Amino acid sequence: MTAPLLQLQDLSVSYGPVEAVHQVRLDVNEGEIVTVIGPNGAGKTTLLCAAMGLLPATGSITLAGERIARPSVEAMVARGVALVPEKRELFGEMSVEDNLLLGGFSRWRKGQRDQAQRMEEVFGIFPRLRERRAQLASTLSGGERQMLAIGRALMARPRLLMLDEPSLGLAPLIVREVLQVVSSLRQHGVSVLLVEQNARAALRVADRAYVLEMGAVALNGAAADLLNDRRIIDTYLGMG
Ligand code: ATP
């Protein structure tokens, strides 16, 4: 059996005396879309930031069998991990194209290929960005901005993409469009760890899911099973 692409073991994160993430065990296998769902304040963002080396944590982070001794953003990026933060953090006064070029800056692979070629590949994934390549990022719609944020992270050719609430602030139809693209990323050799408060949308595109409650994994399993799980339906999916 090959080692998981990402393996978190007993990961705990505290803000001072308050433990926000408690002993989380989570795997993402090659080619998988894994989602972490849970209510506001459950610790999803904290977990993602710790997994990216942005926050100190106890426990271990292993990438493709290699235990990361001192997790840091640099260590994670160097091993092909990219994060799209909740705030998207685009450069509004720069064009779509220039925002993408900035993302290509930290490519982890040696023998870097041409950025223009990578941009074409990203445009292949997000044709809408190609149409708007010269437009300022600040003038894009919410969905387009999210696509640009994901596209920018993809410029670095990550093998694992971590996404923090890509559906935030988007209309339902656009959420579906963005998440469809996210689920198609496995065809491009990218595995995904998707943090979402929109449980239904996330479970529809993910292979497996973890439910985080008060910092701990309350439940995990195949996304399709969780979509039909009474506890999940009652707590997170409402009547629909
Ligand atoms: P949301 O979906 O609302 O972003 P979340 O599941 O991502 O929620 P976190 O943002 O990770 O949850 O927050 C987890 C807990 O840690 C919350 O109780 C929050 O108040 C607390 N917390 C988050 N950031 C900090 C911080 N910088 N300092 C202190 N406490 C924090």
Automatic annotation (TrEMBL):
Residues 6-239 form the ABC transporter domain. Keywords: Amino-acid transport, ATP-binding, Cell membrane, Membrane, Nucleotide-binding, Transport. InterPro entries: AAA+_ATPase, ABC_transporter-like_ATP-bd, ABC_transporter-like_CS, BCAA_Transport_ATP-bd_LivF, P-loop_NTPase. The keyword ATP-binding applies. It comes from the Bacteria. Gene3D superfamilies: P-loop containing nucleotide triphosphate hydrolases. GO terms for molecular function: ATP binding; ATP hydrolysis activity; branched-chain amino acid transmembrane transporter activity. SMART domains: AAA. PROSITE patterns: ABC_TRANSPORTER_1 (PS00211), ABC_TRANSPORTER_2 (PS50893). GO terms for biological process: L-amino acid transport. Transmembrane segments: none annotated. Belongs to the ABC transporter superfamily. This is Branched-chain amino acid transport system ATP-binding protein.
